[in-house]
Design brief:
This protein is mainly alpha-helical and 277 residues long. The chain has helices at residues 3-18, 23-34, 39-42, 44-61, 63-76, 90-103, 106-109, 113-118, 123-140, 155-167, 175-185, 190-219, 226-253, 257-276. The relative contact order is 0.21.
Length: 277
Amino acid sequence: MTYLEAIILGLVQGIAEFLPISSSGHLKLFEKLLGLPNVETDYILFDVLLHFGTLVAVLIVYHRVIADLLREALTMVHIRTPRAGETPDRPKRRMIALLIASLLPLFLILPVKDAMEKLGSSYLFIGIMLMITGLVLYMSDHFPKGEKTEKEMTLWDALLVGLAQALAVFPGLSRSGMTISAGTARGLDRSYAVQFSFLMSIPTILAAVVLQIADAARAGVDPSLLPKYLVGVVVAAASGVGAMRLLQYIARKSRFGGFAYYCWGAGILSMLLSLIS
C-alpha cells in the first residue's frame, strides 16, 4: 500500500460513510477502477482504523450533544450525582431511550450478516443496491415535511429507522441514506433525522471496530505500514467531518435529489463493471 492509496481510501471511507451514497459500494468501485487494494481482506487493521476514523468524525461534529447525552445517561443510572437544583432532562432521556431502541433491529441481522456482506463481491448486486439507494433518496424528497424531534418521536419511529440501518448491511445500500429517509418518512424534521442517523452510527461503528479487532490481530500487523495507516485514518476523520457538515447544510437548505441521480449513475457503472470483471 502506498501513501496515495491510503489517502484515497481514507477519502472514500470518510465521504461515503456519511453522504448517502454507500461507503461499502464505493470502496468496491474504487478498488476496481483504480486498482486499489481490498482493505477488507488484505489490510484488515487498516479497515478497522478507517472505521475508527469515521467514529472520531462523529464525535467531533456532535461532541456537545454526545456529552449532554452521556451526562444524562450517567445520571439516570446513578453514577453521576446531579448538581444542586438540577432536574432530569426529559427530552435527552427520551432521546437516549430512542437511540437504544433503534439498535434492536440489528440483532435480527447478526445471524445472516456475514452472508449479506459476501454479496459485496458482486458488482451486479452492488449496482442494484445503489439503484435502490437512489430510489429511496428520490422518494424521501417527496415525503411531506416533518416536524418531529426527540419530543415527538415515538418508539415505533425509532424501531423503523433502526430497521433501515440493519438493512443497510447489504453492500451498496447507504446507511445514512436509508436511515435519514426512514426518519423523514416517519415525519421527523429533516435536520433532526440527520442528527439521529449520525448518533445511531456511533454504537454501530464501534461494534464493527470491536468485532474486527480479533480478525486484525490474527492477520498480523506490518509495522512499516502504520504511518500510511495513520495518514488514511486522519484523512477519513477529516473528510468525514466535512461530509457531515455538508449533509447538515443540505438538510436545512436543499433536497437529496442530487444524491439520488448520483447513486443511479454509480449503480449503472457498477453493473457495467460486472460485465467485464
